[in-house]
Specification:
The protein is α+β, with helices and mostly antiparallel strands. Helices cover about 15% and strands about 35% of the residues.
Length: about 350
C-alpha cells in the first residue's frame, strides 16, 4: 500500500502561470526575505511576489480542491492507496511535502531521496511553471554542495536521481494545440489514468536542465521579444554550445531557444529545434538570425537563418540591455550571462 500526497500549488488565479511563475503562490512571501538564492532574474521567488502576495491569504484559505484532484484522490483510494491532499502556498510548504521523500540517514550527513520508499507524490499542475516550482525545490533539497560531493554520485551529474513524480494536468486545453509538457511526454491526463500510473506504472527518467541562476528547466527557454504589433525585436548576445559559437554577439538575433523538450521547437511556423529529446542527454540550441541577401536583380531581401547545435551546456551572454525570455512558460529578463547544463536522467515521472 502506498501513501500518496496529492499536491496543489496555491491558486493560479493570482498571477499568470501561478506558483513558480514569479507570481503568487498564495501567501508565499515568507521565504523571500531569508533565502536570496531563490530569486529569479526579476528578483522574485518561486513562491511569491513579496508582500503583494501575502494580502491574498484570506482568499486562498477559502479555496477548495478542484474536481480533477478529487477524482484522482478517489481513484487512488479505490486502488488501495492512502491519500493526503495538500495545498502549498509557499516554498516552505512545498519543502515540508518533499521531506516525506527523504531516504535513511547517510554517514556523510547528506539529505538523500528514498527511491524505494512507499510515499509517492502527485503534482496537480495548471502550468509547466508550477511543475517546475516543485522540481526546483527537489533540486535544492537533494543537490549536495560541491565541497560535499559524495563518491557515489555519477560523474556527469551534480545531484542524485530525484524521486519520481506523477503529473495531474488541470488544464485540458493544454493537451491540445498549446501542448504542455505532460502532453509532449504522452503522460495520462485523465485522473483515473494518473492514479493507475502512480500505483501500477513505471518511473520514466528524463533529463533536467540546471542553470547558474539557481533554477531548473524541464521543457525549454525561449529568449527574445516582440513589439506591441507582434514584430520581433532585434537583440544581441554571444551564444555558445560546448565549444561551438552560434553567434559572437555582433549580429542581431530574433530568437534563441534552449531546448530539452519540444515546447519551443517552432516559432511562427519557423522550425527552430529539429529533434528535441528529453532522454538523450543533450541540449539542443538554436538561434534565428536575420540575414540580408541580394537577388539576381540586385534587390535586397531578408531571410531567416537558423543555426543549431547540440551539447551538454550552453551559455548566453547579452551584449546590451535586457533580454526578455520564457522559461517553462515563466517570464523573466536576462541581464547577465546565463548558463544551462544537462543533468541526464535526473528526474522522473510515473507513466503507465
Amino acid at each position: 500500500m502506498y501513501d500518496v500526497v496529492l499536491l496543489t500549488l496555491g491558486s493560479e488565479r493570482d498571477a499568470p502561470g501561478g506558483c513558480g511563475s514569479g507570481g503568487a503562490c498564495c501567501g508565499g512571501a515568507t521565504e523571500a526575505a531569508t533565502d536570496p538564492t531563490s530569486q529569479t532574474d526579476a528578483g522574485q521567488t518561486d513562491a511569491g511576489q513579496g508582500a503583494r502576495a501575502g494580502g491574498d491569504t484570506e482568499r486562498c484559505a477559502t479555496e477548495r480542491p478542484r474536481v480533477p484532484v478529487l477524482a484522482c484522490s478517489d481513484a487512488l483510494i479505490a486502488r488501495g492507496a492512502r491519500v493526503e491532499l495538500v495545498t502549498a502556498r509557499s516554498d516552505a510548504e512545498i519543502d515540508a511535502v518533499l521531506a516525506r521523500l527523504d531516504g535513511p540517514a547517510r554517514p556523510d550527513g547528506l539529505t538523500w531521496p528514498d527511491l524505494d520508499g512507499k510515499t509517492r507524490l502527485v503534482v496537480a499542475t495548471a502550468s509547466d511553471g508550477q511543475l517546475r516550482a516543485v522540481l526546483r525545490r527537489l533540486v535544492r533539497r537533494y543537490a549536495p554542495a560541491p565541497s560535499k560531493r559524495p563518491a557515489d554520485l555519477p560523474g556527469n551529474r551534480t545531484l542524485p536521481d530525484l524521486p519520481p513524480v506523477a503529473v495531474l494536468p488541470l488544464d485540458p486545453a493544454r493537451g491540445g494545440t498549446h501542448r504542455d509538457l505532460a502532453a509532449q511526454l504522452g503522460l495520462p491526463r485523465d485522473p483515473a489514468a494518473v492514479a493507475a500510473a502512480v500505483v501500477d506504472g513505471t518511473a520514466r527518467r528524463l533529463d533536467l536542465l540546471r542553470n547558474d541562476g539557481g533554477s531548473v528547466t524541464l521543457d525549454g527557454a525561449l529568449l527574445g521579444a516582440a513589439d506591441d504589433a507582434g514584430r520581433p525585436l532585434h537583440w544581441r548576445a554571444r551564444v555558445e554550445v560546448d565549444d561551438t559559437v552560434l553567434t559572437n554577439g555582433d549580429e542581431p538575433l530574433l530568437a534563441c531557444v534552449v531546448g530539452n523538450a519540444g515546447g519551443y521547437a517552432t516559432l511562427d511556423d519557423v522550425t527552430l529545434l529539429t529533434a528535441p529529446d528529453p532522454t538523450d542527454g543533450q541540449i539542443e540550441v538554436a538561434v534565428a538570425v536575420p540575414v540580408v541577401v541580394r537577388s539576381a536583380l540586385g534587390r535586397k531581401r531578408v531571410r531567416l537563418e537558423v543555426r543549431r547545435a547540440r551539447g551538454r551546456a550552453v551559455s548566453v551572454l547579452p551584449r546590451e540591455g535586457k533580454v526578455p525570455y520564457l522559461d517553462d512558460g515563466v517570464e523573466g529578463e536576462l541581464t547577465r550571462k546565463r548558463s544551462w547544463w544537462i543533468e541526464p536522467g535526473a528526474w522522473a515521472v510515473w507513466s503507465s
